[in-house]
Task: structure prediction
Amino acid sequence: MLEGLEITEVSISALERTHRLDSEFYSRSNLKQVALLENIKAISLCHFADISDGNHMSISKEFVETGIPYYRGGDIYNSFIEFATNPLYIPQRVFDIPTMHRSHLHKGDILMSIVGAIIGNISIVATNNDATCSCKLAIIRPKENVSSEYLATYLRSRFGQQQIQKFRRGSGQTGLILEDFDQLLVPYLENSTVQLITDNVNKSLDCSLHSQQLYASAESYLLDCLGMANFAANPDAYNIKTLKESFLETGRFDSEYYLPKYEDYIELVHSYPNGYDLIGNVCDIKDNNYTPVNGIQYKYIELANIGKSGEITGCNEQAGEELPTRARRIVHKGDVIVSSIEGSLDSCALVTDEYDRALCSTGFYVLKSHQHNPETLLTLFKSLLIQNLMKKGCSGTILTAIGKSEFEKIPIPLIRQEVQDEIAKHVKKSFELRMEAMQLLENAKLTVENIIETGGGGNLLIYNELQLRAFEEWNQAVWLLFTEIGITSNIDVKAPIGSTYKKLSNSFLKSGRLDAEYYQPKYDHLFSELKRFKTKTIRQIATLSKSIEPGSDAYCEKGIPFIRVADLSKFGLSEPAVYLNKLEFKDTIRPQKDTILLSKDGSVGIAYKMEEPIDVITSGAIIHLNITDKDVLPDYLTLVLNSSVVKLQAERDAGGSIIQHWKPSEIEDVIIPILPTSEQVTISKMLQQSFTLRKESKRLLQEAIQIVETAIEEN
Result:
């Protein structure tokens, strides 16, 4: 009758210390965590930092369009507060009021949301720029010689978050009180580990800043090409129009619509040398409503999920029946989403792989252009030019927004292709750096969690060392290959796209390709270099086999693992998210020992050699290569496939505007340099050592975790 009932005993002294009588507070999981932290020497957060909260003054009537940032709970979603998208602003005179001084932010401060559903969100103040915050944020100011980066990372970890959530108070809108921060425990870690975490977080910040700079470069480049670098619109707040020139032509009576600055912007578009057209002609506007299916989980993007530089910072994941009624637009990779709501018109973002087939609010226009690449389209819509023309078209009394008819009529310059290519390069690099920054922060958080779980992290240091050595072994193998081939200094895979001239007999009639990218000089240079070596095509080296594409209807929660491109890396296979019915697919090919798995769709050109046969099914987007040529070693071929020698060939051959596709016939024609067997053996040994170290590092870490877990259970 009492099965499942949890009973824990606590001392009177514990009750007196916490002033809590709610049973959840003393759950076994919470008490176990406290014991775990105390076992590795953890003490109060207040020993490491001073705690206060933000401004308590009523200043809602003081907010201005530009000024000193005033951060609220909703701004704490990014790791660094400076990247918050829509902070409020206050004037300098309000910031300087003596009672505001306590809430002035300093570089290194950690901000924590302490009210509502977002309790526990963490941001670091990364600069010394003037800023302040509301009382719904706690200001955690680390003491001298205490790492802000470590404290923030620990508080973001599952151990920190579990403690924070434990101290929630209230029944309706829950919150934290400052007095409870004294009971938040923070573990002491070795200085070397704290430094490692600090370095990772700082590298993440550098990447984010560099990402911002690259995005700004793309914007500046666009403005230069548009002739807008020094453009200043007419600031007059009035304009005189006849009835014929105004209402009878536009149907608009609001004075904002006729401000001179908008005419200046339109004239600027009209004078663009490469021409212009209307958004309705340049873009496909995807405004068909999608009805979510009950019981199916969806990613849902709303305005709060859009970052400053055109990125999607996150999303909600909800079942179809739980989604709000405005979640009706389906998006795909390569789409650009643009807010239609005045006040957030600059909330524009590029849909990446992660958010393919997610839903977004009907407050967004979902766009795809047949004349602009997605990166250029994004940059255009975030530019001062289009932002102002969108603002011109906004109307409404309660909710001011730009309707579809006005949106379609906005003129947009037709950007030259070479300019688009340059913009795309900068924006893509910006996104790559941002992803790297996020990964660095995640690594820092995992480091803290692993150390806590392993009781001090002795084996973790070995793990880190082995990971480093594995990386070095891999780089040594790559270096050896490139040195032998002689391309370490002769080929720059990141060289800017130039131009080349080809006769019809040497281009289309030979290759069937008319796209300029295919004939770039860098590919000619590569093949010229390869002529210095014995080469073979993949067709001469291996057989190619393709698996199946069963479709999402065949996915199961358990069964035989189904490996997709997202689960494949040059270092191995990750745990898949979906499975297939084993009986239904019993005759489907399985990877064997020395089978090389090679991605042909999406992220093309990822290769991994199987060490042993494995009972999994791979996606049709992954080719199975089985070597038939005794002069080619599997490890060597795998390394070449992952090198720029093949990456360049894949880059040249793969087609598709949104998702890349590398045809099996094109893969078979890929040229492989064949080094002497002795060199292949040397390379293979280095690779094997790299993978051996990687396996050992994982084993040690798992062993350490198992030791701690066993010890806790036995005690």
Notes: The longest strand covers residues 137-142.
